Amino acid sequence: MRAFSFVHTADLHLGNSQYGLEARREDFDRVFGEIVEKTIELKPDFMIIAGDLFHQARPSNVTLENAIKNFSRLREAKIPVLTVDGSHDSAPNAITGTILNPLDSAGLIYHLPRHGGACWQKPDCYYVYGVPNYRTRRKTEELLPVFMEQNKPTPDPALFNIFVFHMALDLPSVKPPYMEAEAPPELIPEGFNYYAAGHVHERYADKLKTGLLIYSGCTETVNYAETKIKKGFYHVKVDEKGTVSPDFIELKSPRKFIVLEQDFSGVTSSKITERAVQLVKDADEDGAIIIPVMKGTLPAEASRAEIDLARIRNAAEKALLVHPIVSLRESEVSEEIVRSIFESELKDLKTKAFEYFLQIFSDRYSRDEAEKIARTAVSLIEPLTKKQEDKVKQTLEELLK
């Protein structure tokens, strides 16, 4: 067998105008440009894109035009591009088909599932087989066996065999907590040396069946939780004996994200705003995307709606964007107390309600003040339910005196 090499990438998500920003769409294009540039320098025998080339099944004209320019560069360099569709760019319906089909017809890519046998091979060297993405586990378990029956995978022990797919396998070491596993490993055929996978955005490499399973990971940040993941692709070298050497190539062009996680438990809404603004100012960096993540439990009288998100968003001068994430709970009162209020007899309702309000306000006020406010809150229950507006107004005026 002749030695050769190939590039394995996935999850490029071209056309992703993240946060509604044209600059972010351009970022994803720029990263693809870097991948193409590095691939041409590496001079592999071919490139594999294991799904989610595009972020939408119908990318915009500008995204499509930039993709065509990059594929044209690879074609001029005589580097074939082999693809399968992913969960984002799979065919929206059987009539229109995937956007990858016309790119295949133009000779810019070779879309494996579209061709007879779903394969591409070179005698005395390699055999590459690829399957479509079916989005859900139910459809995958129903339709993938049908596809493979119609396009039987035929790995050859005399060749280096590559299986290309875009799915999260149901393996404890692979399956992310936020993602449904679309396929049990039993659905994946035996006899392959390299399983080129996409869909899981974090890099992964381990043995699977008779070969090596590799998820190449995302090439740009699609979700802020991915900021710590190194972005890149694999250059895989195979020697005459079939020994595999995957080399991860880190990318330099992905946008910098700065995630600021802070626990604000017990802090009032106004102070949260002030502290978050200061955090953003301290982290401000030219061109970065800053994500303040506000966690914890608010004091019971506070509300998420009172946090001034506009001030936080406008706190940076150099960053491309500040995108606050509010993950704050709004009540510190125990479930036991709330349950006891509603499970008590009606005659005890005011007593239980007083205890409830007293616990809420004791965290913020002196004992005397907390009792006064709690009594007022209880005295408002009846006139509020009976729509006695004058009584409500009189009670509130007495409290403010």
Plain-language structure description:
The protein folds into 3 domains: 4-250, Metallo-dependent phosphatases (Purple Acid Phosphatase, chain A, domain 2, 4-Layer Sandwich); 257-329, no CATH class; 335-400, no CATH class. The chain has 10 helices and 16 strands. The protein is an alpha/beta fold. The longest helix has 21 residues, at 22-42.
Shape: elongated
CATH arch. level architecture of the largest domain: 4-Layer Sandwich
The rounded distance between the terminal residues' Cα atoms is 92 Å
Helix content: 25-40%
Give short descriptive properties of this protein:
six-stranded mixed sheet, elongated, 3 domains, 401 residues, 10 helices, single chain, Purple Acid Phosphatase, chain A, domain 2, alpha/beta, 16 strands, 33% helix
Give the helices and strands, then pairings.
Blueprint: E1 4-9, H1 22-42, E2 46-50, H2 61-76, E3 81-84, H3 100-105, E4 110-111, E5 119-122, E6 126-130, H4 137-150, E7 160-166, E8 194-198, E9 204-208, E10 211-215, E11 232-238, E12 244-250, E13 257-263, H5 269-283, E14 289-297, H6 309-313, E15 321-322, E16 325-329, H7 335-343, H8 349-362, H9 367-385, H10 389-400
Parallel strand pairs: 1-2, 2-3, 3-4, 6-7, 7-8, 8-10, 13-14, 14-15, 14-16
Antiparallel strand pairs: 1-11, 5-6, 9-10, 11-12
Helix pairs in contact: 1-2, 7-8, 8-9, 9-10
